[in-house]
Specification:
Blueprint: H1 11-20, E1 32-33, E2 47-48, E3 51-52, H2 61-64, E4 71-72, H3 78-101
Antiparallel strand pairs: 1-4, 2-3
Helix pairs in contact: 1-3
Length: about 120
């Protein structure tokens, strides 16, 4: 189900944990629950690991989930977790290579004058 079928403790996250650390998964507690983050049917407010609505609204988890689960955890398998983990690892490695090869342009200062108070980050 999209949106809302893949978020906290969902099929994807549970599959990853079943693959990476199966001993830490309390299988008797696995339940599916589609989060009610979009209970109004808004085209602007929804949460899903594969996308997010263009607007954000912070609510207490208990306002939209009875269990804390936001997805279909009962569909999780270690095999799916392996596929997701390997693909995520490949993409991360590819991004690191791309990032390492990026040419970083020097910063151009646009301030007329130096800041008048100490900053906690470099400005040049």
């Amino acid at each position: 189900m999209f949106p809302g079928g893949c978020s906290h403790a969902c099929e994807l996250e549970t599959s990853m944990l079943l693959y990476l650390a199966p001993e830490s998964v309390r299988k008797d507690k696995i339940k599916s629950e589609i989060a009610k983050t979009n209970k109004l049917g808004s085209k602007f407010l929804y949460t899903d690991l594969f996308s997010q609505g263009p607007m954000g609204l912070i609510e207490w988890t208990s306002q939209y989930s009875d269990t804390g689960v936001m997805g279909e955890a009962e569909k999780a398998t270690a095999e799916k977790g392996k596929i997701v983990f390997e693909e995520a690892s490949r993409n991360l490695a590819e991004f690191v290579e791309e990032y390492h090869a990026m040419k970083i342009e020097p910063r151009t200062r646009h301030q007329d004058q130096e800041p008048t108070f100490p900053l906690s980050f470099p400005t040049d």
